User: Fold this.
Amino acid sequence: MIAAVVLINTERGRIAETAELLLDLPEVAEVYSVAGAYDLVAIVRVREYEQMAEVVPTRLAGMPTIVKTTTLMAFQCYSKRDLERMWGIGLDDESELGEPSAEG
Assistant:
């Protein structure tokens, strides 16, 4: 799965409306309203790069309530679950490692 983080500026007062429009697109997995230089952040997921080229500059940027987009293409996904699994390789439960128990 190919992912992109799209930073979005909307027309003034149209953040919620734009978020709802974005969620109507099947390629948009999540939309967050944010503080700072951007109004919304959309997570876009597609199967092929060619799809991203159609979704972001045509369907997203073409929405009348969107003023500007900045797209960050993701190379690799790191999640807390993945990191815990990676760092936990080879570790067993403490009781299996010969740790003394409370019983003696």
